[in-house]
Amino acid sequence: MTGGGWSCPHELDGKCSKVKNLPCDPGMKGCELYGRYVFFDGSKNERLEQKKARTERGSEPTND
């Protein structure tokens, strides 16, 4: 990863040592960032959207 002030500690030579040495793709499933941050690529936000939906369902009043 080049540029910026942050680099992933799991990235070694462009590969992710945490996710089966696949090419580094921040936000991919298994990534340290997966489900924690919002990405421009909406396909990487699936887990975050699931968490948000569960939270919203949990805060809805019940009609018992």
Topology:
Blueprint: E1 11-12, E2 15-16, H1 46-59
Antiparallel strand pairs: 1-2
Descriptive notes:
- With 64 residues, the protein is of the alpha+beta class.
- It is 22% helix and 6% strand.
- It contains 1 helix and 2 strands; from the N terminus they run E-E-H.
- It has one helix spanning 46-59; strands at 11-12, 15-16.
- It has a two-stranded antiparallel ribbon.
- Strand 1 (11-12) and strand 2 (15-16) form a beta hairpin.
- It is elongated and about 55 Å long.
- The chain starts with 10 loop residues before the first strand and ends in a 5-residue tail after the last helix.
Kindly summarize this structure in a few lines.
This protein has 64 residues and is of the alpha+beta class. The protein is 22% helix and 6% strand.
Number of helices: 1
Beta percentage is 5-15%
Q: In which range does the helix fraction lie?
A: 10-25%
Report the average pLDDT across residues.
Answer: 77
Order of helices and strands: EEH
| Backbone CA Rg | 16 Å
Major sheet: size, sense and barrel closure? 2 strands, antiparallel
Terminal CA distance reads 53 Å
What's the number of extended β-strand segments?
Answer: 2
What descriptive keywords fit this protein?
64 residues, alpha+beta, two-stranded antiparallel ribbon, 1 helix, 6% strand, elongated
